[in-house]
Design brief:
CATH architecture of one domain: Alpha-Beta Barrel
Structural class: alpha/beta
Distance between the termini: 31 Å
Shape: globular
CATH class of one domain: Alpha Beta
Largest sheet: 10 strands, mixed
Length: about 375
């Protein structure tokens, strides 16, 4: 397996700190599980004959990005101009901006600098997005673009039959069309991940075929989200872009995307009140986020006792009712499995990477969410 070395880089404070000295709530990332998740996904995608271009937005750290790149990732995916500027400054790797960007006078120069310094590809999905991108970059720069294809998520994206016309419009404005990508967001429904993966493969295949017939060279056919990765297959996609696979979370566990033994991220919280079978923790919505899909009850659960579910959430308090686990007291520290690891990494500024034992090193995620 690849990627078995230590996890450390520029955003890590190499000073070892005892976790018992870190104020709660904070993010705890198990470095051994993290490395195993990175290596396993890299090997799996390589085995399909495809490349891995993981999402930077999931963790927003140079430490984990470096681990992914050193393990064989072909580049990174970012979501915002600020993330692009940061990644372009820190790494010499291809970058895909997968969100349709909104640019103002403050972000325009940063985009120009990022494009001038490396291989940057932007998402487009309409004539309007082509026009806005050209206005943002001026007339001098002509980076690659990839067409976002709607594969069933019904969020953003162009239908496969309309790709050729949009590609011609982009080429007429000086952009090089390098491929197509999609986001199978409807995979975040229990029992729908396999169907979403198949719909994505079909849509991308149709879109790529249409571009080829229109005279475009399709270099990239980019697919994937963490829930669809168990059903990834070779033959259509040239690359995959999962993100949450490195951490896992309660959503992914219930969707069947990860096993509990793979989950590397938890939120360490302190017990601030105990009243009968009701426990109150100091990890409220400002730590855990308020993600609560309609199909998933509660806002999180205790890592060691999954039946202990967070039923109520306030800004700085999380309430567990009907607790039947081992006795706990005010001041005890418990580990929470959050619904959405991405939200936790966006909200909590205290994140710690742990090797075996009780000491840890601090991570500093990029502040852009």
């Amino acid at each position: 397996m690849t990627g078995a070395g230590p996890v450390a880089d520029q955003d890590t404070d190499t000073t070892r700190t005892a976790l018992s000295e870190v104020p709660t709530p904070f993010v705890r990332i198990d470095a051994e599980r993290l490395r195993a998740n990175v290596a396993e996904m890299q090997d799996r995608i390589a085995g399909l004959g495809a490349a891995l271009r993981p999402h930077f937005k999931t963790h927003r750290t140079t430490t984990i990005a470096r681990l992914q790149l050193d393990s064989g990732a072909a580049g990174l995916t970012v979501a915002t101009p600020a993330q692009l500027e940061f990644v372009a400054r820190k790494f010499s790797c291809p970058v895909l901006v997968s969100s349709l960007i909104q640019v103002d006078r403050a972000t325009g120069p940063a985009l120009e600098q990022a494009c001038a310094g490396g291989a940057v590809t932007f998402a487009i999905d309409s004539e309007a997005s082509v026009q806005r991108l050209r206005a943002a970059l001026g007339d001098e720069l002509s980076p690659d673009v990839m067409l976002e294809v709607d594969a069933g998520c019904r969020r953003t994206g162009v239908l496969p039959d309309d790709c050729a016309a949009l590609a011609r419009s982009a080429a007429a404005r000086g952009f090089r069309v390098s491929g197509v990508f999609s986001y199978p967001g409807h995979s975040y429904l229990p029992g729908h991940s396999e169907e979403a993966a198949e719909q994505e493969q079909l849509a991308l295949g149709e879109a790529a075929s249409g571009l080829t017939k229109a005279g475009f060279e399709v270099e990239h056919v980019s697919a994937g989200s963490t829930p669809t990765m168990p059903f990834a297959r070779g033959g259509v996609a040239t690359e995959y872009r999962p993100g949450t696979y490195i951490f896992g979370d309660r959503q992914q566990l219930n969707l069947g995307s990860v096993m509990r033994s793979q989950i590397s991220l938890s939120v360490v919280a302190s017990v601030v009140a105990v009243e009968g079978d009701r426990i109150v923790l100091d990890s409220g919505g400002k730590a855990l986020g308020r993600d609560a899909p309609r199909w998933l009850e509660g806002y999180g659960e205790l890592f060691e006792h999954p039946a202990a579910m967070i039923t109520r959430l306030y800004d700085h308090h999380a309430v567990i009712e009907g607790y039947a686990g081992p006795s706990v007291a005010v001041g005890d520290r418990l580990s929470v499995l959050p619904n959405n690891a991405n939200s936790v990494m966006s909200l909590l500024r205290s994140a710690w990477l742990t090797e075996p034992g009780e000491s840890a090193t601090a991570l500093s995620p990029h502040p852009d969410r």
